[in-house]
Specification:
The protein is of the alpha+beta class. The chain has six helices and 26 strands. Strands 3, 4, 5, 6, 7, 10, 18, 21, 22, 23, 24 and 25 form a twelve-stranded mixed beta sheet that branches. Strands 11, 12, 13, 14, 17 and 26 form a six-stranded antiparallel beta sheet that branches. A two-stranded antiparallel sheet has the order 1-2. The termini are far apart.
Length: 360
C-alpha cells in the first residue's frame, strides 16, 4: 500500500514539473485579437474633379451646335431624317436630341421637319416621311445620310442626279412600322441611328463626316452685346396658314425658347418633355405650287432675309446658299454671325411678315 502511494506521488510530481517548464509566447508586435481586420494595402481613390478635367480636355467643339463632345462622337457622318408633322404623326421621337431641326411647308396645310443628328443617338427616331427636293438640299449641306420613306418624282430625280447617300424606308430593313404608339400608316415608320449607320456602311456610303459647320461664340452672348440694332423677343409667333402655326416662349431660367405647335406644347414622345431651342433662325424663301397634289417649290438656294433670335432678343439677318450642296450662311452687318452654343431650329417661311415678335 505504501509503495502504491509513493508511485502516485511520483507521477504527480513529474506532471507538475512538465507544466512548469512550459512558457507563454509574448504577442507579436502589432498583432491584435481582432483577426477580421484587413491587412491588404489601401488603393488610392481617383480624384473625381481631376478625372472630369482630364475628360473635358479631350473634348472638342461640334461644328453643328458649338457644344463640346468627345472626338469619336463627332467623327461619324451626320444623319438627316425627314420627319412627319401631320397631326396624326404627333408627337415625334428624337427631335430633342437633334443638333439642327428645319421646319418648312409641304402640301397645304402641313409642315415637315428635317432633323440633323451627329453626336447624340436617341433610342428611336420618327415618324419618318417622304422626300422633297428642298429637303434634300438641306440634308446635303450637312453632309447627311438622307433618311426618308418614298418621295416625289422630282425628289427621286435629285437623289439620282446628286448621288445622294439615301436610305428609303420603302426598300430598307432599317425602318419598321411601330404600332405601339397608336399611330397608323403612313404616320408610324420609325428607325434608329444605329440601324441607319449600319445599313449606310453595308451600302458602301462614306461613314465619316466631311463638311464645314457654323461659327459659334465660346460662351453665350446676348445680341445686345454684339449688335446695335436688336429688339426684345420673349415670344415668337410664326403663322404658316390658319391651320398651322409655331410659337416660342423664352424661358430665362434655362436661357432657351420653349416650343409650341398649333397651340400645344411640342414634346418629344421619348420622354414627354417639351422641346426647347437655344437658337431660332427664320429665313424667307420663295414658294410656288407645282402640281395638283399641292407639291411645292421652295427657293432655298439663293439668298434672302430673315431673323436670328437667342437669349430673348432678335436681330435682322440675311442668308445665302450658293448651291444645292453648300451650307446656308447667315449674315448681319456684312459679317457671318456667330451662334450661341446649343441646338438650332431653322424656320423656313414664304413670307417674313408671317412672323411676329413680342417683347413680353
Amino acid at each position: 500500500m505504501r509503495e502504491k502511494t509513493l508511485l502516485i506521488l511520483l507521477i504527480v510530481m513529474l506532471l507538475a514539473a512538465a507544466c512548469s517548464s512550459q512558457t507563454i509566447a509574448p504577442p507579436v508586435s502589432g498583432e491584435t485579437e481582432n483577426k477580421s481586420e484587413s491587412t491588404e494595402p489601401e488603393i488610392p481613390q481617383e480624384d473625381p474633379e481631376k478625372q472630369e478635367a482630364e475628360d473635358n480636355s479631350r473634348k472638342v467643339i461640334s461644328p453643328l451646335d458649338g457644344l463640346k463632345y468627345y472626338p469619336e462622337e463627332l467623327s461619324k457622318r451626320p444623319v438627316a431624317v425627314s420627319i412627319d408633322n401631320h397631326p396624326s404623326a404627333r408627337w415625334q421621337a428624337g427631335l430633342s436630341q437633334a443638333e439642327i431641326v428645319y421646319e418648312f411647308e409641304v402640301e397645304h396645310p402641313y409642315t415637315r421637319y428635317l432633323c440633323i443628328f451627329l453626336a447624340k443617338e436617341p433610342e428611336m427616331v420618327g415618324p419618318v416621311r417622304s422626300a422633297r427636293p428642298y429637303i434634300i438640299y438641306y440634308a446635303l449641306e450637312n453632309d447627311g445620310i438622307f433618311v426618308h420613306v418614298g418621295g416625289s418624282q422630282d425628289a427621286f430625280n435629285e437623289i439620282a442626279a446628286l448621288a445622294v447617300p439615301d436610305i428609303d424606308g420603302l426598300y430598307s430593313g432599317a425602318m419598321q412600322r411601330y404600332y405601339d404608339t397608336g399611330k397608323v400608316a403612313p404616320h408610324n415608320m420609325y428607325t434608329t441611328l444605329k440601324a441607319i449607320r449600319s445599313e449606310a456602311e453595308s451600302r458602301g456610303y462614306r461613314t465619316e463626316g466631311s463638311f464645314e459647320g457654323y461659327k459659334f461664340n465660346e460662351e453665350t452672348k446676348k445680341l445686345s452685346d454684339v449688335f446695335q440694332s436688336f429688339t426684345y423677343a420673349k415670344k415668337i409667333s410664326i403663322t404658316y396658314n390658319r391651320d398651322n402655326s409655331t410659337d416660342y416662349e423664352y424661358d430665362s431660367s434655362s436661357g432657351t425658347y420653349k416650343r409650341f405647335k398649333d397651340g400645344e406644347m411640342h414634346i418629344d414622345e421619348l420622354d414627354d418633355k417639351q422641346l426647347c431651342a437655344k437658337n431660332i433662325i427664320v429665313i424667307e424663301t420663295s414658294k410656288s405650287v407645282l402640281d395638283n397634289a399641292g407639291r411645292l417649290y421652295l427657293g432655298n438656294v439663293g439668298e434672302g432675309k430673315g431673323f436670328y433670335m437667342t437669349e430673348g432678343q432678335s436681330t435682322q439677318i440675311t442668308w445665302k446658299k450658293a448651291s444645292k450642296t453648300s451650307r446656308t450662311r447667315f449674315y448681319a452687318n456684312g459679317n457671318e454671325i456667330l451662334l450661341n452654343p446649343g441646338n438650332t431650329w431653322i424656320q423656313v417661311v414664304s413670307n417674313i411678315n408671317s412672323v411676329s415678335v413680342s417683347a413680353e
